[in-house]
Amino acid sequence: MFLDEPTIGLDSTSKVIIRDFIRKINSERKTTVILTTHDMQDIEAIASRIVLIVKGCVLFDGSIEKFKE
């Protein structure tokens, strides 16, 4: 499933509902989710792996913890 900024413009309650839904789909249906976002809260709530791409080049591919380092 490809999601481009799925929570942009939503209030905080709606963001939580959407994030929970995405995690549920990923977990229960084993669906791969590709998420493009600038929202670090979305990333931390949903992702276990981050791939940072700039101008078509992969600059980082790893865990959130490694990304924060």
Structural class: alpha+beta
How many helices in DSSP terms?
3
Give the strand line-up of the largest sheet: 1-2
Q: What oligomeric assembly is this protein in?
A: single chain
Please, what is the average pLDDT? 94
How much helix is in the residues? Answer: 40-55%
Order of helices and strands: EHEHEEH
Radius of gyration: 12 Å
Molecular shape: globular
N-to-C terminal Cα separation, in Å?
A: 28 Å
Largest sheet: 2 strands, parallel
* DSSP, total strands: 4
Q: Uncertain regions: pLDDT < 50 for 5+ in a row?
A: none
Report on this model:
With 69 residues, the protein is an alpha+beta fold. The chain is 43% helix and 25% strand. It contains 3 helices and 4 strands, in the order βαβαββα. The chain has a two-stranded parallel sheet with strand order 1-2.
Tell me briefly what this model is.
By secondary structure, the protein is of the alpha+beta class.
Labels describing this entry:
single chain; 69 residues; alpha+beta; two-stranded antiparallel ribbon; 3 helices; 4 strands; globular
Write the layout of secondary structure elements.
Layout: E1 2-4, H1 12-29, E2 34-36, H2 40-46, E3 50-54, E4 57-62, H3 64-68
Parallel strand pairs: 1-2
Antiparallel strand pairs: 3-4
